[in-house]
Structures are given as structure tokens and as C-alpha cells.
User: Which sequence fits this backbone?
């Protein structure tokens, strides 16, 4: 059961990964060619798949929440013999299976989009950052022309943003579309973030498909999801936080404190 | 006759073993040195006990000129400690002037002076440089590079944050390290995939 929940979570993460490239698709500048237009269609399609999945899962997850609340308020925990509790538990199991089913339907499209975009980004990263740049050029690119004390205009990365997945894609797209060559530093980071997410997503999708198949078989055999377990609840929470931004945990990169506005001393020794 | 005598004496000197001559010369030089006072004594290389950065730098310069060049790294360490006791943006200039002076005096090469300055006071990382591309140069030693950058960030904390109150610079360096870690993770994976 735990592995089924794990696979569900993997799927949700994979979905997040797929959506991320939408943001980077608009990233193109004369200096760094990390986001060629050929990737845009994949990104858009992936974003659409993410939005469809949000829509499809929102209803079933809301129902799961209501059923879970009813189960707790009815003090069903441990009351296995109670017919009313057994009915709620069975409904919980059915809703959980429906959630897996929705994800299972979207997975093939997601897998195709993820792999396509991942491959494109992989070539770009290797070419633009790996083969064309020295280590020094890389850090100069990352620093960009950002003045001291200013916050770089880029989304939060490698963590849950607290936003809906589709909204996160929209923000990425906006960032990429509005940035020219001046935002190369952001694009390099965004491209790397998306690529790593897609690598992870690719594995997660495969594992999720496998687990959905196993869970479906168990369900067909004996309605084994009669009671929602802590592991199941954890998976549902994970999907909610990734898709709908309901997680309280936000991982952010360190940001500078407010700038003093003073002109910094620059040594003749400075590179 | 006299000539023969002279020749005989010269010949006797020339015939002495060379080692004996060298030994006598060493003894003679040692006596001269002792008679001349402190010509060969070790200089006192400790810095003056002061909380004032300018005074501490003057003391370091004086010692370095007296032959305490081997203590240069230790002096930098102590000067940073003194600066941290009275942190202010102007301290950057004092360190820069000190390093330029060290370079002008021939105590450091210009390259060494630049690396020392940038290691402690610049956002960019001395640990992340090279003439070849990242796939070839950085990726094979990525973990070492990142470890070195971590250590350099600690030096930047001392130089930029604690000695010079350059919070913006330090946090930019911190962010640069995190972004470098992320970008190298992706880039090196892509490089490896290209080699498969």
C-alpha cells in the first residue's frame, strides 16, 4: 500500500516536472540558446496536461478530504466492525482508486512530453553550458549583470512554490518571455532545474505506472483499500501540495538583505 | 732562492686538503658574525597587539619587510580578526592597499594578490575557474570544486560579511554557490549523457 502511495507521489512530482519546461520554453537570447522554439510546443502540451490533471484531481481529492473528515468525526478509527464505518472506508478506498485512475490516464501523454523536453534540454545544456563555457564564464553568466542588492527576477526553484502547478508554469513562461539576453543567468538556472526535475519525473512516471497497475489488481481482488492508511493520506497530501500548492513548506534560495544603496568599493585587484 | 722558498710556501698551501680550508673559512665567518652582533638573528615576526586595523597593517608591513614573509597567511588571518572587531566597508580598501603593497614589494605575485583579494572580498569564486570547458574540466572533479567553493564561501564570510559589512556581496556569493551547484548537477549529467 505504501508503495502505491509512493508511486502516486512520484506521478505528481513527474507532473510538476513536466510543467516546468513550459516556463523555460520562452527562454531564448542571443547568448544562451537554452530554449529553442522547437521545445515550446512540448512545453505547451505539457502545461495543458498539467492543467487537465489539476482539474481532474481537484474534485476527487476534495471528495477524499470530505470522506476522511467524516471518517475521523465518526470515530471510525479502530471500529472495523461498524457497518457505517465500513461503508465510509470503502468509499475512501474507491476515491483513492479513482485518483490513481485519473493519474494513470494522463501518464502516457505526460511521459512522452517529459522525455521529449528532457532530451531537448539535455542537448542544450551540454552544448551551451557544458561545451561552450569555461567554469569562469559559467559563474559570470550566473551572476549576470545583476546590480548589488537587487533580487534576481526568477521563480523559486527545486522546491514547492506554494502555487498551483499550472500557475507556476504561467509564471515561468512569463519570466522566459519577458527576459532577453539579460536574463541568461536566470535561464541557466531554470533550465537546469527543469532538466533535473524531468530526469526525476521520468523515473517517477515509470514507477507510478507500475504501482497503479499493482494497486488496481489488489482492488479488483478484494477491495483492499477498505481503510485509508497514513501512507495513503501522505500520498494524497503530497499530490495536493504539488498540484495545488497547499504545502506549508517552501524551499527558497538564500536572498540578500535589503540593500544599503551605498556604492561599493571596487579594488583594482578585483576580477 | 727566495723565489723557490715562495713557491714552496705557495705550493704547501695549495697542497692542503680543500675541506680543511673550507672548515677554517666557516669558523672564521662564524667568529665575524658573532663579533658583528645580530646580523644573523631571527626577526620577531609577531604582530603588534592592537585593535586598530591600520596599525595592525603597518605592523605586518614592517615585519614582512624585516623578512617574515613566511608569516603572510598568518598575518592575513590576524588582520581579518582585527577588522572583524571594528567592521566597516572602508576595511576593504585597507586590505586592497595592503595586498597591492605586498605585490609591489615583490612579496606576492600580482596573481597571488588578486586571488587573495577575490577569495575574501569578491562575489566571484576563485575556486571556479579554468581554461577548458565545463564538460572536460569541471565535471570530472565537480565534488572537489564544490567543496572548495564551500570553503571559499567561509573566507568570503570573514572578508565581506564580518570584516567589511558587505551583506549584499556575501549573500550574492552564497546564492551563486547554490546556483552553481544546481547548474553543474544538470550540466554534468547532460555531459555524461552525451558521452554514453
Assistant:
Amino acid at each position: 500500500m505504501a508503495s502505491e502511495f509512493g508511486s502516486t507521489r512520484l506521478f505528481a512530482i513527474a507532473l510538476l516536472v513536466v510543467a516546468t519546461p513550459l516556463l523555460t520554453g520562452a527562454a531564448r537570447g542571443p547568448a544562451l540558446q537554452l530554449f529553442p522554439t522547437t521545445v515550446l510546443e512540448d512545453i505547451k502540451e505539457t502545461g495543458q496536461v498539467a492543467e487537465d490533471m489539476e482539474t481532474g484531481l481537484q474534485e476527487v481529492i476534495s471528495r477524499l478530504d470530505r470522506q476522511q473528515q467524516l471518517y475521523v468525526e465518526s470515530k471510525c478509527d479502530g471500529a472495523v466492525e461498524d457497518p457505517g464505518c465500513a461503508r465510509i472506508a470503502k468509499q475512501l478506498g474507491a476515491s483513492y482508486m479513482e485518483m490513481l485512475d485519473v493519474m494513470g490516464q494522463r501518464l502516457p501523454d505526460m511521459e512522452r512530453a517529459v522525455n521529449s523536453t528532457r532530451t531537448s534540454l539535455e542537448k542544450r545544456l551540454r552544448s551551451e553550458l557544458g561545451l561552450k563555457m569555461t567554469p569562469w564564464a559559467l559563474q559570470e553568466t550566473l551572476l549576470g549583470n545583476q546590480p548589488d542588492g537587487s533580487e534576481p527576477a526568477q521563480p523559486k526553484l527545486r522546491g514547492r512554490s506554494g502555487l498551483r502547478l499550472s500557475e507556476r508554469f504561467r509564471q515561468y513562461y512569463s519570466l522566459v518571455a519577458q527576459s532577453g539576453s539579460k536574463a541568461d543567468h536566470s535561464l541557466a538556472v531554470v533550465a537546469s532545474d527543469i532538466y533535473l526535475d524531468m530526469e526525476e519525473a521520468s523515473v517517477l512516471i515509470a514507477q507510478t505506472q507500475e504501482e497503479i497497475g499493482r494497486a488496481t489488481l489488489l482492488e479488483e481482488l478484494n477491495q483492499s483499500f477498505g481503510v485509508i492508511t497514513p501512507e495513503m493520506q501522505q500520498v494524497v497530501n503530497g499530490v495536493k501540495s504539488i498540484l495545488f500548492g497547499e504545502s506549508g513548506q517552501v524551499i527558497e534560495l538564500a536572498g540578500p538583505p535589503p540593500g544599503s544603496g551605498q556604492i561599493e568599493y571596487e579594488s583594482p585587484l578585483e576580477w | 732562492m727566495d723565489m723557490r722558498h715562495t713557491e714552496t710556501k705557495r705550493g704547501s698551501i695549495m697542497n692542503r686538503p680543500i675541506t680543511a680550508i673550507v672548515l677554517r673559512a666557516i669558523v672564521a665567518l662564524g667568529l665575524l658574525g658573532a663579533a658583528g652582533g645580530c646580523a644573523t638573528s631571527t626577526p620577531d615576526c609577531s604582530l603588534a597587539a592592537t585593535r586598530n586595523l591600520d596599525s595592525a597593517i603597518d605592523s605586518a608591513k614592517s615585519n614582512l619587510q624585516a623578512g617574515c614573509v613566511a608569516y603572510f597567511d598568518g598575518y592575513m588571518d590576524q588582520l581579518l580578526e582585527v577588522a572583524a572587531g571594528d567592521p566597516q566597508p572602508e576595511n576593504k580598501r585597507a586590505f586592497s592597499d595592503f595586498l597591492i603593497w605586498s605585490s609591489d614589494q615583490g612579496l606576492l605575485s600580482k596573481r597571488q594578490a588578486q586571488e587573495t583579494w577575490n577569495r575574501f572580498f569578491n562575489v566571484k569564486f576563485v575556486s571556479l575557474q579554468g581554461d577548458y570547458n565545463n564538460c572536460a574540466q569541471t565535471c570530472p572533479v565537480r565534488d572537489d570544486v564544490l567543496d572548495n567553493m564551500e570553503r571559499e564561501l567561509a573566507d568570503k564570510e570573514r572578508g565581506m560579511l564580518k570584516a567589511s559589512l558587505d551583506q549584499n556581496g556575501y549573500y550574492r556569493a552564497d546564492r551563486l554557490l547554490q546556483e552553481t551547484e544546481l547548474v553543474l548537477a544538470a550540466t554534468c549529467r547532460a555531459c555524461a549523457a552525451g558521452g554514453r
About this structure: The first helix of chain B runs from residue 2 to 14. DSSP finds nine helices and no strands in chain B.
